[in-house]
Design goal:
Blueprint: H1 2-39, H2 47-67, H3 71-83, H4 93-110, H5 114-133, E1 143-150, H6 152-166, E2 167-179, E3 182-191, H7 196-205, E4 210-216
Antiparallel strand pairs: 1-3, 1-4, 2-3
Helix pairs in contact: 1-2, 1-4, 1-5, 2-4, 4-5, 6-7
């Protein structure tokens, strides 16, 4: 009878620990997903990916609790997981980082290091916010690809002064014949100021023998 009472107490303690670890993993997953939603800038935002990060932390915690210190369970789970084929391609490097972020938080919660899981999630999330706020690692150069159609003979004397006016330097990188006396010119240009791109396009558009003006740039520079 005493042994049964002890077993019931032990089971109760294990159940409380189980729920506590999963709850911490859930909180960490939510925090990670919120950070991801705020700082993500790419064109491939996925609602299912954000939701998966929350669940991934909990699943990782559950797997770690199931394995425990049992080596046989670890090998068994590795064999079971090897059957699953993951065919979804991760298109953004940052997505891979957040996947590992969720896994790490779930592992910390799964082994019972709740404070480590919560504190690590908050600190790493704060670093993500800081890097995003100060645009760390963003290019300081304002390089663009400028394309337009023009006559090489008549157009050169008209567009070159404008390129010299608005650009620190310009480099002709491609010339493609489009028809009779019509060529598509591609320039790599470094603007003196990012705001000058509108003025450059406006002034080029005023030249009668220049048409189909296109200026390509990275969205992260906006």
């Amino acid at each position: 009878m005493l042994q049964g009472f002890q077993n019931s107490v032990l089971t109760s303690l294990e159940f409380e620990s189980f729920l506590g670890n999963l709850l911490v993993a859930l909180v960490c997953g939510f925090v990670i997903s919120i950070v991801y939603r705020i700082i993500y800038r790419g064109p491939h935002y996925s609602t299912s990916f954000v939701q998966a990060m929350v669940i991934l932390s909990m699943i990782t915690a559950l797997v770690i609790m199931v394995i425990g210190n049992n080596l046989a369970r670890a090998f068994g789970l590795v064999g079971a997981m090897s059957i699953i084929r993951f065919r979804t391609a991760v298109k953004d490097t940052q997505d891979i980082v957040f996947i590992f972020f969720s896994l790490a938080a779930g592992m910390a919660a799964g082994v019972g290091l709740k404070s480590f899981a919560l504190l690590g999630t908050i600190l790493i999330g704060g670093i993500f916010f800081g890097l995003n706020k100060f645009n760390y690692a963003s290019s300081k150069k304002q390089e663009f690809l400028l394309q337009f159609h023009s006559s090489l003979v008549e157009g050169e004397n008209t567009y070159l002064p404008l390129l010299q006016k608005y650009c620190k330097h310009n480099k002709l990188i491609n010339v493609q014949a489009m028809g009779d006396d019509d060529y598509e010119l591609s320039f790599q240009v470094l603007l003196k100021e990012k705001q000058m791109r509108t003025n450059l396009i406006t002034d080029l558009n005023k030249i009668h023998n220049i048409k189909q003006i296109r200026l390509y740039y990275d969205d992260d520079q906006n």
